[in-house]
Amino acid sequence: MKYRYLPATIMLSAGAITIFICMYNRYETLRSLEILLAVLIIFLIIGSLTKKALIKIINMENDKTANANVNAKEQAETEENKEEEKADNEDEGNQVN
Q1: What angle do CA 70, 52, 18 make, to 5 degrees?
Q2: What pLDDT, in 10s, does the model give residues 22-49?
Q3: pTM over 0.70
Q4: What is the number of other CB atoms lying within 10 angstroms of the CB of residue 6?
Q5: How confident is the model at residue 71 (pLDDT cuts 50, 70, 90)?
Q6: Helix-strand-coil percent breakdown of the chain, rounded to 5?
Q7: Residue of 48, 67, 44 whose CA lies nearest to 56
Q8: What would the DSSP string read from start to end of 3-51?
Q9: Given pLDDT bands bounded at 50, 70 and 90, which one contains residue 85?
Q10: What are phi and psi of 5, to 5 degrees?
Q11: Cα dihedral 86, 91, 96, 97 sign
Q12: In angstroms, rounded to a whole number, what is the distance separating the alpha carbons of residues 94 and 97?
């Protein structure tokens, strides 16, 4: 949800800059609109690709964190099981004597 408006923000920022440049250089209206349309389409695509890349990166980081948590839990459980087995073996040894 954080990145919902990213493509539109990038596109509109590029469009505003383009219009100011066209006005400064005194392009004809039709020519300015053609340039603006091309810029808006190109930067919409760039914004969409950026959004997908950022989401993918964040998901990879979340997966790494989740895997680290799972590995830590598994390691703790393994250590607990080893301690329980050791205690059971000691109890069996005491019962035999």
Answers
A1: 150
A2: 999 999 999 999 999 999 999 999 999 9
A3: no
A4: 16
A5: confident
A6: 90, 0, 10
A7: 48
A8: TTTHHHHHHHHHHHHHHHHHHHTT--HHHHHHHHHHHHHHHHHHHHHHH
A9: confident
A10: -100, 5
A11: positive
A12: 5
Tokens representing 92 are 């069996």
Cα Rg of the chain (Å, integer): 30
Q: How far is CA 55 from CA 13, 41, 50, 58, 87, in A?
A: 21, 21, 9, 5, 48
Residue listed under structure tokens 């919409």? 44
Closest CA to 17 of 45, 43, 50: 43
Question: Whats the size of the chain, residue-wise?
Answer: 97
